[in-house]
TrEMBL record:
Name the UniProt record assigns to this protein: beta-lactamase
Species per Swiss-Prot/TrEMBL record: Sphingomonas guangdongensis
Family: Belongs to the class-A beta-lactamase family.
GO terms assigned for molecular function: beta-lactamase activity
Domain Beta-lactamase class A catalytic: 85-344
Leading EC class: hydrolase
Domain of life: Bacteria
PANTHER family named in the record: BETA-LACTAMASE (PTHR35333), BETA-LACTAMASE-TYPE TRANSPEPTIDASE FOLD CONTAINING PROTEIN (PTHR35333:SF3)
């Protein structure tokens, strides 16, 4: 049929198939894991606890969540084999739908780049930084895994602006760009302070890319691990029981963990202008809408006429398990109404295609129920 695309469903997942069909949009053919499927932020350090120091601005009067959508979201989660949480929130009507485990902290991975970006833009709003502030990156600042900016860092370093680093971190999920912003804004303490000051809820922030990744693998970070595939080689030399124990500790209590419900609520507040200035809010959402990662995740079911800004996150693999496979964002209908959503898969052995189809089915269900359909 003209204008339709084809997707392959796995046997028995009728709720997912029904959600995709009812939406009137067919998702893309699943060819692989998408653009950004590398590991990001993880750790084994003792996590701090956060409490809000200020009242959270009031949300719009809460209406009842659509019954069919609530039932569909619940069924999608219940039929997925693995630890996962789904949260959907109407920015305009105030209702929220949260699956089982939506209040449980799960590995964020690169989703945590959102909080770095918000902290940086809050500093811009306060006049402490500018988007054109220069940031020098040296070879000793390089991180690991996905870091395209590393090719620009020569012996004498590379100077980027805050604007360039934000673009790279949020649209390419560049780890070195993100850690450079983190260093510039005051380190993990500054981000944790922002999360607390803004009352964002059940969201943790770890100690930075290198320590997080090394801790999850069971390694002690050395800067030479940033070059080539040295980190992967060091990880491969570890005894299997050391890797397994480190991985299990991380999944059980991720230091970068966040609840899907808290992330969806934070995104709804961002959209309403409760977190940043209007200028910074518009800038961040436009940047999220230009993201090039996660082509086959939530974005895979966004129909023509709708807009979507998001941030993905993907963790390390061990023996077929993945510690964190996520996508969170803001989905806006042609009539301007917006939904904040978070789909976080904390630990699973299911194939990548099944994870992507779960995410696409959530978007498809929202589209199908928009406007009371």
């Amino acid at each position: 049929m003209a204008g339709r695309r084809i997707v392959t469903f796995w046997a028995g997942f009728s709720v997912l198939e029904r959600a995709l069909t009812l939406a009137g949009v067919a998702p893309v053919v699943l060819m692989g894991a998408g653009v950004h499927e590398v590991a990001t932020s993880v750790a084994l350090l003792a996590p701090p606890s956060y409490q809000s120091l200020m009242p959270v601005p009031e949300a719009p009067p809460r209406m009842l969540a659509p019954r069919v959508l609530k039932e569909t979201i619940g069924a999608l989660r219940n039929q997925f084999d693995g630890l996962a949480g789904i949260a959907v929130r109407s920015v305009d009507e105030g209702w929220a739908i949260e699956s089982v485990d939506a209040d449980r902290r799960m590995p964020q991975q690169s989703v945590s780049k959102l909080w770095v970006a918000m902290t940086v833009l809050d500093a811009v709003d306060r006049g402490r930084l500018g988007l054109d502030t220069p940031v020098r990156i040296r070879r000793e600042d390089l991180t690991l895994f996905h870091q395209p900016i590393a090719s620009l860092v020569k012996a004498d370093g590379y100077t980027a602006t805050v604007r360039e680093l934000l673009q790279r971190a949020m649209t390419q999920s560049d780890n070195t760009a993100n850690d450079s912003l983190l260093r510039t804004v005051g380190g993990p303490t500054a981000v944790r302070s922002f999360i607390t000051r803004k009352g964002l809820g059940n969201i943790r922030f770890g100690p930075g890319e290198r320590l997080l990744q090394a801790g999850t693998a069971g390694l002690t970070w050395r800067q030479d691990m940033a070059m080539g595939r040295a980190f992967e080689a060091a990880r491969a030399r570890l005894p299997a029981d050391v890797r397994q124990a480190a991985y299990q500790r991380y999944v059980a209590d991720p230091v970068d963990g966040a609840a899907p419900a808290a992330i969806a609520a934070a995104l709804a507040r961002l959209k309403r202008g409760d977190v940043l200035s209007s200028t910074s809010t518009d800038y961040l959402i436009r940047t999220m809408e230009s993201s090039k990662t996660g082509k086959y995740r939530l974005r895979g079911a966004v129909p023509p006429g709708w807009t979507f800004g998001h941030k993905t996150g993907t963790g390390q693999d061990l023996r077929g398990r993945t510690a964190g496979y996520n996508d969170v964002g803001l989905l806006t209908a042609p009539d301007g109404r917006t939904y904040a959503l978070a789909v976080m898969i904390g630990d699973t052995r299911r194939p990548i295609q099944e994870r992507q189809l779960l995410m696409q089915a959530v978007v498809a269900a929202i589209v199908a129920n928009h406007g009371g359909r």
